[in-house]
Write a structure and sequence with these properties.
By secondary structure, the protein is an alpha/beta fold. Helices cover 45% and strands 17% of the residues. The protein has helices spanning 16-30, 67-84, 94-107, 126-135, 149-153, 160-163, 175-186, 210-218, 234-243, 258-266, 282-290, 300-305, 323-335, 337-353, 356-372; strands at residues 5-11, 35-41, 57-58, 88-92, 112-117, 141-146, 166-168, 196-201, 223-228, 250-254, 270-273, 294-297, 316-318. The strands form 2 sheets. A 7-stranded parallel β-sheet has the order 3-2-1-4-5-6-7, sandwiched between helices. A 6-stranded parallel β-sheet has the order 10-9-8-11-12-13, with helices on both faces. Helix 3 (94-107) packs parallel to helix 4 (126-135), helix 7 (175-186) runs parallel beside helix 10 (258-266) and helix 8 (210-218) crosses helix 13. The longest helix is centred in the N-terminal third of the chain and has 18 residues, at 67-84. The chain starts with a strand and ends with a helix.
């Protein structure tokens, strides 16, 4: 689609990033911009793509295995760029961030590129991170978006030309999800002072640090925990809950559709996200807008995530891997309905600040002038 704004990812697996790109593409289209979406390759599991597959063009039919398949992917990408001649490409995920500036140079098209980082770069493959410093410094790269100031700070080791292109645009929910969350929050039942249920949303992976949360919940007999999500750590986490004698109080729901997951979350009393790292978590934004008291880990991205624009902390921050402190915070909130009401009010304030329209305005301000150059 010549002259359009293209949103690109390494792979099109369902998740927060794919959802964000879909939301931005649709929002910009509503404002009169021409948009398209492509991925270097589809998920290994077709069901992992979710949603409407027709929205996404795949450069390769599968993830390349080996040097020859990688070269074929580059050739196919160059052909795509020459055929479509995008005005702007917004990239995400480390491999796409690195490959697109190279492919644009090989295709000899006047496309401008906006790189984006959705997690701290010290969590990326170190080799890709080094190459990204070089490719992101190329003239075709017009801007480098980070989804939080904490993520932007992890770009400090990049070359000066790279750092000069940095801009922070915080994530927000799509307009439809905002409306759904607000409707769920409006009809949420009055909390039962005799119970306390914690909810956590996200894949069951090492990043989410769920063993810490399970150990803390096991130490507080009056609370229950619901983990909404699936992932490679599920068997290990179930075993841990059983070993700690807390299996009856910890529920694994598996993956749920977005609306069902949010409905389950809306009926909880607390939200916990003790991740080792995040970018700017959409699950945290959802929980805040639902009015759930927030408990997060003491890492820069998480602290920024629970801090209002005036600097007010709107959540409870616990040291990473300190199970005893986390258990103490959970127990205190479980036993004090007034403290939970205060935490809910602060969370709602935070959730209102994460505006879809504000996020869309910020992306349009970056992308529209570049698109107009064509």
């Amino acid at each position: 689609m010549s002259g359009a704004i293209h949103f690109a990812v390494t792979h099109s697996s369902a998740g927060g990033l794919r959802e964000l790109w879909d939301d931005l593409a649709e929002g910009l289209a509503e404002r009169g911009h021409r948009v398209a979406r492509f991925a270097l390759y589809p998920p290994a599991d077709p069901e992992g793509e979710g949603g409407d597959r027709s929205r996404w063009h795949h450069i390769a039919a599968a993830r390349p295995r080996g040097v020859l398949a990688g070269l074929r992917l580059v050739v196919a990408l160059v052909r795509y760029l020459r055929r479509e001649r995008p005005a702007v490409i917004v990239t995400a995920m480390p491999a796409a961030n690195v490959l697109l500036p190279i492919a644009v140079a090989l295709a000899r098209v006047p496309t401008r590129i906006v790189l984006s980082h959705h997690s701290p770069t010290d969590t990326h493959n170190p080799h890709l991170d080094r190459i990204d410093g070089w490719t992101g410094s190329l003239p075709s790269v017009a801007a480098v978006v980070s989804v939080s100031d904490a993520v932007a700070a992890t770009l400090a080791h990049k070359p000066a030309r790279y750092r000069a292109k940095r801009v922070t645009i915080h994530n927000a929910l799509s307009r439809s999800v905002e409306q759904l969350v607000d409707s769920l929050a409006a009809r949420a039942a009055t909390p039962d002072p005799g119970r306390c249920r914690i909810v956590a949303l996200g894949r069951l992976t090492a990043q989410k640090n769920y063993p810490m949360l399970i150990r803390a919940v096991a130490a507080v007999p009056q609370v229950e925990l619901e983990l909404i999500g699936a992932g490679e750590d599920e068997a290990m986490l179930r075993t841990l809950a059983a070993e700690l004698g807390a299996a009856e109080r910890i529920r694994f729901t598996g993956w749920l559709p977005r609306a069902a997951a949010l409905e389950r979350a809306a009926s909880a009393d607390l939200f916990a996200q003790v991740s080792r790292y995040e970018g700017h978590s959409l699950a945290l934004v959802e929980a805040a807008r639902l009015g759930l008291p927030l408990i997060v880990s003491d890492v820069p991205v998480q602290i920024e995530g629970v801090t209002a624009r005036d600097g007010t902390c709107c959540g409870h921050v616990v040291p990473l891997d300190d199970v005893a402190v986390l258990a103490t915070v959970i127990a205190a909130l479980a036993q004090d309905p007034a403290a939970r009401r205060d935490g809910a009010a602060r969370a709602r304030r935070l959730g209102r600040e994460a505006s879809h329209d504000r996020m869309l305005d910020r992306y349009e301000a970056v992308l529209a002038p570049l698109s107009a150059l064509r």
